[in-house]
Design goal:
about 290 residues; alpha/beta
Length: about 290
């Protein structure tokens, strides 16, 4: 159901509030450059700092701005199953095409707890569900066996895998490849993930280089491996630059340097250290973005 370059889009702020006009412009920028789907309110969208009202409003704007041209995969996860269900109910009512559900953070559920969490959301809100495994953020790793169990649910259609373990991803494809779509959750691993059966990426770097990210995946799908490799190696230094500091600090800073948003994020995220900012500027200049 979902493949290609899927952007985990930032949430721009202006004077402490969501900058709705800038957000709409970012969505147009993505669609114009071939992005396959938009993910509002993910990690890159600073969902952890949005109030419930803001969270719902950002999803509303995304659905309205996209206007059915590409899918909207709304980030509606949480570490409370009840809260995740409530957010997902709103996203479905707003017209989102699917939901991105992160593994519950901080409370560190067992594998059975993870299964029951995602199953409860799927049964409460019948909406296509993309699982999101990112142990570096959540302190819990969803194992391939659990993914395979969840893939038997008709609502569970894909997984954004950001464990960093290609071996784990191979096991997901081996156990559940017929039932679930594997998406890279790490720009640095997009090409290797495609090579083991993945179908795309939920991307940070696509916020600033959407055309090249989209073309890279398209070339691979078309069988033009050399062109896909060339774009992957071209993008690689930029992908690394997006993690000079905690995501989404570098990507929001980049968009500000490109004149697309205000250089504003919410505490506890803060502006880049001067040394890292200089490195980021150099990476953007070498890529031709500023």
């Amino acid at each position: 159901m979902f493949k290609g370059s899927i952007v985990a889009i930032v949430t721009p702020f202006k004077e402490g509030k969501v900058d709705e006009e800038a957000y709409r412009r970012l969505i147009e920028f993505q669609i114009e450059n071939g992005t396959s789907a938009v993910v509002p309110c993910g990690t890159t969208g600073e969902s952890a700092t949005l109030s419930v009202e803001e969270h719902n409003r950002v999803i509303d704007i995304a659905v309205e701005a996209v206007n059915k041209r590409i899918p909207v995969i709304a980030g509606t996860g949480g570490n409370s199953t009840r809260e995740a269900i409530e957010l997902t109910e709103y996203a479905k009512k707003a017209g989102a095409d699917a939901t991105l559900q992160v593994t519950p953070y901080y409370n560190k559920p067992t594998q059975e707890g993870l299964y029951q969490h995602f199953k409860a959301i799927a049964k409460a809100v019948p909406l296509p569900q993309v699982l999101y495994n990112v142990p570096g953020r959540t302190s819990v790793n969803m194992l391939p066996e659990t993914v395979a169990r969840l893939a038997e649910l008709p609502e569970v259609v894909a997984i954004k895998e950001a464990s960093g373990s290609l071996g784990q991803m191979v096991e997901i494809v081996r156990l559940a490849g017929d039932n679930i779509t594997l998406l890279s959750g790490d720009d640095n691993l997009t090409l290797p993930v495609l090579s083991i059966g993945g179908k795309g990426v939920v991307s940070v770097v696509a916020n600033i280089a959407p055309g090249d990210t989209s073309d890279m995946v398209d070339f691979w799908e078309e069988g033009d491996v050399e062109k896909a490799k060339a774009l992957f190696y071209k993008l690689f230094p930029l992908c690394q630059a997006m993690f000079y500091e905690t995501n989404p600090i570098p990507v929001k800073t980049s968009l500000a340097l490109m004149g697309k948003i205000k250089d504003e994020m919410r505490l506890p995220l803060c502006p880049m250290a001067p040394s890292n900012l200089e490195k980021l500027k150099n990476a953007l200049q070498e890529y031709g973005l500023v």
